[in-house]
Structures are given as C-alpha cells and as structure tokens.
Amino acid sequence: GSGFIGAMAYTFSDSFWFSAVEGEVNAMSSLFTAIIFWAILKWDEEMDAMKHAELSEDRSHLRWMILIMFLFGLAIGVHLLGLLILPTIVYVIYFRYYEKTTLKGLILTGIIGVFLLGFIQDFMIPGTISIASSFEISFVNSLGLPFYSGTVFFFVLLIVALIFVLRWTRKKGKVMLNAATLGVIVFLLGYGSFAT
User: Fold this and answer.
1) What is the DSSP code string of the chain?
2) 95-150: per-residue pLDDT in tens?
C-alpha cells in the first residue's frame, strides 16, 4: 500500500515530471534519494529483527550503512540533492536508539544531521580534490616533476592511510571505527567513479 501511495505521489507530481522530461539530473537524483532512504529503512528493519533475537555481537547490520555511503558517493556525482537525505538518516538512527524522545534530543539530532551534511559537502567532496590539487601544484611547480605526479602521490598516500586505519581498527576490534573507515572508502569509490 505504501509503495502504491509513493508511486501515485510521483505519478501526479508536476515538478517531478517537468524535471524528468528536461533530460536533466533530477530524475536520477530522485532515484538515488529513494534508494538511500530505502536502505536506511532496511537497516532499521534489520535492527528491529536483531533486537528481538538479542544478537549483541552481530554487526552485520552495518553493511546497510556502508551501502548508504557508497550510494551517497554515487549520488553526489549526479547531483548534490542526494545529500539532503542525510538529516533524515540521522533521525532514523536517533529514533532507533532512543525510544523516549525529548525536544533537546530532537534538536541535537537535527544539528548533528546538518553538521554531517556540511562536513560531507564542504570537506569530503571539495576537500579531497583541493588537497590533491595542492599536491599537484607543489610537485609540478616546486619540484619540477611531471604532470599528475602530485595527484598520484596524494591518492597513493590516501589509499595507504585508509588501509592502515582499516587494518588497525580490525586488529584492535574497533567495529564502529572500522565500519566508518569502510564507509569513507566506499564513499570515495562511489564519488571517484565520476572522476574525469
């Protein structure tokens, strides 16, 4: 029933069809937004099933978060509109872990969601490109090395650092930090697939 209502909402949505027939990115961006929201709902459903089964050591539900980060990386390559689902994801996580909500908790959750949105939009997306650009300019202009040597060095350094953190978190048993590192890796893979 909810799938039918969602389909009918898009069927009779003038703004969606107007954007879809323009041949722009809005339809694909809307698809990514819907898939990311579906994935967080699947995570929530799996968490509910785990709660009843009392599987405290099972961390398999984190695969949904890693998938969401990959989809975010792909969505950003299409349009930044896909990032706007991030505060909603933070609220779903909040409602999962705090059954008794408060006004303070809701406001703090909103602030965290907006902060994460800004962090990804202002640091992760342009930050990696800006740092790679700085390495490139420094290697080519200051050291006289050939083009792309600074960029290649930065990405090799980034890959080595991420592998080191990934192995260290696995060795120390830091499951959440390991999942966050995997999230960053798949985010960069998704975002990097649109590199030109």
Assistant:
1) -HHHHHHHHHHT-HHHHHHHTTTSSHHHHHHHHHHHHHHHHHHHHHHHHHHHHT-SS--TTHHHHHHHHHHHHHHHHH-GGGGGGHHHHHHHHHHHH-SS--HHHHHHHHHHHHHHHHHIIIIIHHHHHHHHHHHHHIIIIIT-PPTTHHHHHHHHHHHHHHHHHHHHHHHHT-HHHHHHHHHHHHHHHHHHTT--
2) 998 888 999 999 999 999 999 999 988 888 888 889 989 999 999 999 889 999 99
